[in-house]
C-alpha cells in the first residue's frame, strides 16, 4: 500500500539582524580573575603575599591590567551593536544605551562601596579601639569637612583610597561609543587620537578636579584612557575576526626582552641605580615628566610600555592559550566572568581586613590568613553567582512549550505507526 510522502514543516528562520556570539576567549576571563586577585592582595597592606604580585616584577601593576582587560571586554561585548547592519536595524541608541547603562551601574557601585568603606573604618574607630582609621585613605575630610565632602562624594570629586578605580572606568564607558565608532572606521586613527590625548594630558597636567581637596583624580581618565582604548581596539578587532597588532617575531621578542630588562632594572641594584639616575638626568635636561617618571596618575611612559609589552606577549604566546584552557585556571576564569561582583566583595573585605589588622595586637598571623580567607570568599561568591545565572527560569502561569519532534517522529507518524 503506498505511503504518503513525509513532509517536514520548516521552522522559522532566526532574524537576520540577530548578532552571532563568538566563543568566549578563556584568556580574558582568566586574566581578569588574576587581576582581581592581585588587586585584593595589594589592598591588604602588610601581608606576605603582596611581595609576589605582578607589581614586584614590572613597572605596571594589576590596575593597568584591569583597564586593558576592561577595554577588551567592552570591545568584544558592545562593538557589534555599532556595526552598520545592526545600527540600521535597531538604531544608534540601541548601541549606546548598554554602555551608558553599564556606566551608571559602575557609578552606583562606586557610591555603594564608598558608603560601606566609611562605615567599615568608622566602625573600627568606634568599636575596635583604632580611632586613627578615620584619618586614613583620604577619609579625614569626611569627618572634618563633612558638608563639603558630602557634595564631593556623589560628584566623584572626593574618592577614598582603595575605592577609586571605578570612577575613571565609568567615565570611559560614557565616551566609549565615540571611540568604537571611530575605531570601526580606523583602529589606528582611534589609537593615534588616544596617544595624542595621553601625551598632552601629561604635558599640561590635565585632570578632573577633586573637591574639597585640591588636585585631581588619582586614576586620571584623560591618561588612563590610553590603556582602555588599546584594549577596546583589541576587542573590537577580535570581534571582527582580526588582530589589532598581529604577531611579528621582531616585535614579540623585542617586547619579551624589554620585560626581562625591566625585571633586571628592578632587581639588580647597580642597574636600577644607573637607570633611575639616567631618567632623572633626562628629566632635569627638560624631558617631559610623563616620559621619564614612574607616576601612576598620568600612566607615565615606563608604566605604559610595560603593560603594553606584557599584553602583547601574553596575547601571542601559545603556552598562555593552553594554560588558560586548563581546569586549574577555571577558578580565576569564574571570578573574571563575575568581575564587578567579585571586585566589589573584594574591596569591602580588604577594607575590613585593614581594620582587623590595625586592631590586632599581633597582626602577623592575620597577614597570612586573611588574604586566603578573602580569596576563598571571592571564589565562593563567584561560584554562587555562576550557579544562580545557570538556573533555568521557572514557568509561572505559563504553559511550557511542547518538545520539538525529531525527523524520525514525523516519519513514523506519516506512516501511521507512532513510536512508543
TrEMBL record:
Keywords tagged on the record: Membrane, Transmembrane, Transmembrane helix
Spans annotated as Disordered: 1-25
DNA-binding is among the record's keywords: no
InterPro entries: UCP028704_OpgC
Species the sequence originates in: Donghicola mangrovi
TM ranges: 65-83, 104-130, 160-181, 188-206, 218-237, 249-268, 304-324, 340-359, 365-385
Lineage: superkingdom: Bacteria
Name of the protein: OpgC domain-containing protein
Amino acid at each position: 500500500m503506498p505511503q504518503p510522502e513525509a513532509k517536514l514543516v520548516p521552522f522559522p528562520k532566526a532574524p537576520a539582524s540577530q548578532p552571532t556570539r563568538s566563543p568566549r576567549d578563556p584568556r580574558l576571563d582568566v586574566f581578569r580573575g588574576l587581576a582581581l586577585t592581585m588587586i585584593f592582595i595589594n589592598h591588604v597592606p602588610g601581608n606576605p603575599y603582596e611581595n609576589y604580585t605582578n607589581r614586584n616584577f614590572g613597572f605596571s601593576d594589576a590596575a593597568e591590567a584591569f583597564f586593558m582587560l576592561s577595554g577588551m571586554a567592552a570591545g568584544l561585548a558592545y562593538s557589534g551593536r555599532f556595526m552598520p547592519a545592526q545600527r540600521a536595524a535597531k538604531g544608534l541608541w540601541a548601541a549606546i544605551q548598554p554602555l551608558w547603562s553599564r556606566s551608571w551601574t559602575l557609578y552606583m557601585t562606586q557610591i555603594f562601596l564608598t558608603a560601606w568603606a566609611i562605615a567599615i573604618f568608622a566602625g573600627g574607630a568606634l568599636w575596635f579601639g583604632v580611632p586613627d582609621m578615620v584619618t586614613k585613605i583620604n577619609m579625614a575630610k569626611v569627618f572634618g569637612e563633612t558638608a563639603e565632602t558630602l557634595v564631593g562624594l556623589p560628584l566623584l570629586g572626593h574618592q577614598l583610597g582603595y575605592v577609586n578605580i571605578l570612577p575613571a572606568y565609568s567615565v570611559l564607558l560614557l565616551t566609549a561609543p565615540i571611540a568604537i565608532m571611530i575605531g570601526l572606521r580606523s583602529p589606528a586613527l582611534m589609537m593615534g587620537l588616544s596617544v595624542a590625548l595621553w601625551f598632552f594630558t601629561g604635558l599640561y597636567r590635565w585632570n578632573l578636579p577633586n573637591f574639597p581637596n585640591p588636585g585631581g583624580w588619582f586614576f586620571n581618565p584623560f591618561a588612563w584612557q590610553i590603556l582602555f582604548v588599546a584594549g577596546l581596539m583589541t576587542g573590537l578587532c577580535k570581534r571582527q575576526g582580526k588582530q589589532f597588532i598581529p604577531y611579528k617575531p621582531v616585535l614579540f621578542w623585542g617586547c619579551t626582552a624589554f620585560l626581562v630588562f625591566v625585571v633586571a632594572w628592578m632587581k639588580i641594584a647597580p642597574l636600577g641605580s644607573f637607570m633611575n639616575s639616567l631618567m632623572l638626568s633626562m628629566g632635569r635636561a627638560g624631558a617631559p615628566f610623563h616620559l621619564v617618571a614612574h607616576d601612576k596618575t598620568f600612566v607615565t611612559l615606563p608604566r605604559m610600555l610595560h603593560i603594553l609589552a606584557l599584553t602583547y606577549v601574553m596575547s601571542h604566546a601559545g603556552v598562555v592559550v593552553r594554560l588558560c584552557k586548563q581546569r586549574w585556571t577555571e577558578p580565576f576564569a569564574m571570578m573574571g566572568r563575575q568581575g564587578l561582583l567579585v571586585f566589589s566583595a573584594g574591596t569591602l573585605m580588604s577594607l575590613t581586613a585593614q581594620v582587623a589588622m590595625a586592631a590586632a595586637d599581633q597582626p602577623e598571623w592575620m597577614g597570612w590568613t586573611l588574604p586566603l580567607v578573602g580569596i576563598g570568599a571571592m571564589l565562593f561568591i563567584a561560584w554562587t553567582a555562576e550557579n544562580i545565572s545557570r538556573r533555568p527560569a521557572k514557568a509561572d502561569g505559563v504553559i511550557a512549550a511542547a518538545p520539538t519532534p525529531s525527523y524520525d517522529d514525523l516519519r513514523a507518524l506519516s506512516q501511521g505507526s507512532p513510536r512508543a
